[in-house]
Amino acid sequence: DEEECFNSAMAHYGKLVGVKNYIALVGKKSSNLEEKIGYYGEHIVLKLQDLGLNTCWVALTHGKSKAIIDKGEKEACLIAFGYGQNQGVAHKSKSLKEISNYQEGMPEWYLKGIECALLAPTAINQQKFYFELDGDEVKLKKGKGFYTGIDLGIVRYHFEIGAKRKI
Length: 167
Hints:
By secondary structure, this protein is α+β, with helices and mostly antiparallel strands. It is about 30% helix and about 20% strand.
């Protein structure tokens, strides 16, 4: 119930109106902090959606949060949540060939994982990731762009849901 964070010009640019609730995603600075935040944050996002709330990953289009950030920690982004004016809009997705080495005859679990990953939200819908199956091992690579570390965690989480296995 804190509305100051989203009472800025940038928040309105991001089409966030009336937001009073958010979760600040903060962690110890590390090379994989953003991926961890994406992975565990998406777990929270999907739980909130299951509860009937609307959610939105927010990185640049907010003001200062009330999060307590200790020395050696970083706030990576926020998850805004509440009852939205609508249920959002579907985003365009890249093709299987653009984001993976999937070919006919590869395991069904791999295909299901990729299809689920394509449904994952990514920063400005950039979908800058690539899956590669080598034997039974799945490698996930991130591309260059804004917030691709967080996106990588979100996409990994979705892949694991669809494939029903950890990577």
